[in-house]
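Morning run. Coffee first, then this:
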Amino acid sequence: MSQLTAVDTTFLHVESGRTVAHIGGLGIVDPAECPGGALTREAVVELVRQRAHLARPLRRKLSAAPLGIDRPYWIEDPDFDPSWHVHEVGLPAPGTDLQLGEAIARLHERPLDRRRPLWELYLVQGLNGGRAALFAKVHHAASDGVLGAELLTALLDVDPEPKPVRAVGRPPESEEPERPPNPLRMLGLGLAKAAIHPLHTARSIARTAPYLDQIPVVGQYPGADLMARAAHTVLRRDSPPRLPRLTPPRTPFDGPIGARRSFAFGSVPLSDIRRLRRALGVSVNDIVMATCATALRRWLLKRDVLPGQPLVAAVPVSLRRGGPGCDGANRLSAMIAPLPTHIADPAERFAAVHTAMGTVKRRFVTTSAGDWFEELSGMVPGAFSAMATRVALQVAPAFVQPANLMISNVPGPQVPLYICGARVLAYYPASVISDLTGGVNITVFSYNGSLDIGIVACPDLVPGNWDLIDYMRDGLEELKILADALPQA
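And here it is:
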């Protein structure tokens, strides 16, 4: 038994009739080497049954604290049965990518069943070219983006022949099952935490004061920068690089979002990204951000709604330190970065992206600002966190929009992976949108020589998200032209 962190609990409470808080991924697979030439639901169910012990979030479900006095707990589901979580659907002929994107959007917009472990896996049959697909989704309370990739790899192999269970360390049958939580113990712990919570709140306020200007929503209010600098002076710290005050312009991306989702996906060669990184002397993330800036600029220009100032993007950052593991809680934060879509000249726009991201990253890594999400999440006692989160989500967007959209770059394995003998050809991430972070989310995942792009959007706000895939490819070509124009060393 383990308790959810304040951040994990926040992800539970943000859900509503219009917002779901799970992350997912669409894997395209070639089942030619599977027995009978087909990947079956029965094979996937048996695989999960054999390997669920490798990733505890697959077997854990929620258990509420008595009277809601504290944050919930994770417990082993005594009735865990993977057949409840693995489903099979089929596409009508001809099984195009557009049809697949529509089907995944419908699956992604459905909330997960909180009575069971918070994940689902869908086998999609009928894709053209003899392909199949697997769509996995797991609640953000149980896994962040990095952990999500690790959960997936627990089910995958690096060879077409699946490893036998004994080779991956199946727990002995004599292992004692986890005991259910004791309600009186949970109640006592909750009361004790409530008694000392003011001390934790005071500590969190002291820790976040020097970084008020970097916290979404808070940092946009007048005086936040002055208070942050004053806190640095009181603490006798050197002031980190200053950031301009970022105010998101009005765009079609801004909420409130609806309950429906759309999903578009595509890939670009990772070799092109790496060549550009060397030629331009920048990071992969700079190239991703510049490509997104070009794509968003073209999308907005096409609709004659391009703002005359930069967009503001929330860029999730993993705070995981040390070795990875599938048992950990969410460890993440976000950088708030300008995206210069208002600059027409490609070279100037790229230079602006590189400069802005350099300043944002230097400030982020030289301070403790990355902990702001954890500190803010923990300021409210567990008994009131649900109410506080929902009130904040309803009230904040009426006064300020922290970001126009989210852009995320998740590293993945650079070797081919297999599931039940089927080769994974590509893996397209699907993430979260909300009123606070805008109606579009662009997430990229590097896998086996490709940069796989997944775009989740609210179709009521952002129609035509497949256009963004094409525009991102155009943005990459634009950077190639810039790189080719540089003097050769």
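The radius of gyration is 23 Å. Good start to the day.
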